[in-house]
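PT: before anyone asks, these are the final sequences, not the draft ones from last week. 801 residues across everything. Please model them as a single complex and drop the result in this thread when it's through.
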Amino acid sequence: LKTPLKQAATSQLVLTERQPDCQPLTTPPKPKETPPADPWTPTSNLKMLISAASPEIRNREQRRQLSDSSSEEHLLGDEYEKSQPSRKEKSLGLLCHKFLARYPDYPSPSQKSYICLDEVTEELHVERRRIYDIVNVLESLHMVSRLARNRYVWHGRHNLPHTLQALKKVGEDNKYIQQIQMIKRREYEHEFDADGERNEEMAGCFGSSEQSEMSFVELPGVEFRAASVNGRKYKSLRVMSQKFVMLFLVSTPQIVSLEVAAKILIGEDQLEDLDKSKFKTKIRRLYDIANVLSSLKLIKKVHVTEERGRKPAFKWTGPEVLPNTQDIKLEATSTACSPPIPESIPSKEQCSKALFPSKGKQSFTRHSSLIKLVKTIENDRRKIQSAPTSPVKISASTYQSLPVFPNTIAQFPAITKHQLEGQSKTAEEMQMKCALSSPEVVPKPEPSQQPALSQPLGVCPASHSSVSPVILPHPQSGVSYAICLHPSQAPTVTTYSPGFMLQPLPCANVTGIKSHNSKVLNKITTEEGDTQRGPDEPTRSLAAEERPETKSETSSQRCLKRSQALPENNLIKRRKSDEESLDTSLTFFPSSYLIPLTHCTHGNKAECSNKEKAGVCSLQHTAYSSPITGVIPMAASELKTVNIPAFHITPLNIMLSPNSIAAAPVLSNSCLNSSSTSSAPNPSSSALNFMLQHIGLIPAGVQVAANPVLQQVPASSQSENISHSSGSTNVQEGKVITFSFSLQLSAPKEPQEPQAVTENFFRTPGGPNTEPSLSASSDGTQRTSQGTLYIPQRKLEVSED
DNA sequence: CATTCCCGCCACCGG
DNA sequence: CCGGTGGCGGGAATG
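LR: through. Structure below.
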């Protein structure tokens, strides 16, 4: 048994000694302070040093004391043994550092570096098993992607921003914040709570777990799984890693205790029954993940001292995740190298072409380059059909998106199948794609087609089939998809997997706040299990203000329709074989949202960026909202004001969070009213036209009538709720809806005592505080995450190390 | 004793 | 059937 240890130790020593020799790969792990003799890259070395230093400095110090004595004198030669191979020497964290040292943080896009596991294991002298652990979490962050058997592509941190954004969004969509709260609350109550309610809650919240399925959040641009990572069963570690990261991104203090994380990760699926062993295992895994994340400097270990003792926890030290839009801009600007952008755009066009060959993309003039891409894509597509394997990254992604829509499928059966079959995760992607596609759908010139828009919104799930194929064409969504990547939209896509669980919540929230129905929705959501009581109560309180809800199935259904979330969730969950059709339907919803973004990203950015912002933006918003618009008829002048400033953000938000759906409509309305009202009678129509024109699907002059259906349908459900309130009120409501969670949280508003706050949070009906909170939310900037702030942290004391 | 987490058995799966 | 993957949990270091 021990032998291996010795060997390892020895080997390490050897490495150290002969570093000079080993030029090929190894970067000296140990030499943190003493910069290793062989610098692969100046930067990389520095980075390594820095990174290595922080987490393990102490360890190092310890070692030094022990080993240095010998080493100092360079006597070591003979007795390597003394150096303790000690466990730390072999820690995953250290190993990870070594691993990371081998590759540049930001590899030039042009040349990809490949990772061969065999080589790595040799060079690092570790068992393969360990490398898998590292690679898996790196993959969860899209820092690498698997190509084939033992081969991975190294992306470095280029994708990190997108990934984090996406993860954050997903985390928000889910109700992680609430879940965290629940758990904490429970703790207070002393686990075994007296109230039967508790148990019930739990059951309700987490109870149904089937959905929990774990979905892996993917990024559009990243060439994931060529070889198919989707094997679906795997990924648990990857998924865990993503969820873990989500927790950080979502929680306000950005500190997550292992205990809570473990509970949530377990809970999602089956919950409760905290099996002791299960819990223990989960924690073990979390440590593994945490070690890698620490090596990436994304988190660091800390201790939180709550009421009862101090518990191990981790603090997020990675980059802050921007809301969205802004990110997009930044990215686009800053990273010229990022290849994804160009790709994405082209794909879109190409998609559109495929769909509507006749149409040219003349409108796209701006992006002549895109056309090129489109052609390329088309070619690729052919190739793919014949040879699916072809790893064209871009093309692949694009295609994948296509599968989502049935229509698309019909058009490109081969592709679709491949994609579907090949990728389980597709659901997510699909959603994204759908989102993209949906906008495109809009382009359809025919008025009848316009309904397509409506479809996505309300009908999406079931109806999509009924929906005109037009939508499908949107497969181009792939294009939009790509767009997403660049900006931050990618996150939007997030909806996917998490969506199923999460989405429901948003709906519920929205609904709840606005309408009575919401409760019903909530319940539904709850069924899945996540939401326990927390959401309910708060929601309820809010709702209560307005009235006792009626929970009719109808309402719920409506909600579902309106909110894509539910359908998506369901669909998303599993797609294995059938998925295709279902997925397709799901996809639609998101697409609508996505589309708008796309616009922004492309031309808009440049165009609207400033002066026109208001105008253009409004248009864009409209577009976005258009789908949504239907949902909420009311337009608030107030919103407008608010929106304008934040409009950038707003669009993003909409896309990102399911919750935002409600909000989106509002915004759009306002925009429409103010800016584009004259041009378009109803928002949806204007939006459509706008979008279409932008997209190039329809000539500038042509206008498509907005689909009445859409408006009515979506609107109907919510409008009712909203309508009852006064105009001004409505506005607020709209806001509220948007930040349903925030409201809940805000209600407690003054968090004097942590516990007290908590209590209020859950028990207090929205009282007086509600409005203020709303207003706060209205700023839009904060959005979802706000909730976190209020979350009762109780006396949290964080101690580093 | 508690926390951290290494090690590696062994089930899967994809070829 | 084989070799790559990677879930999982015992139990060894460490604190």
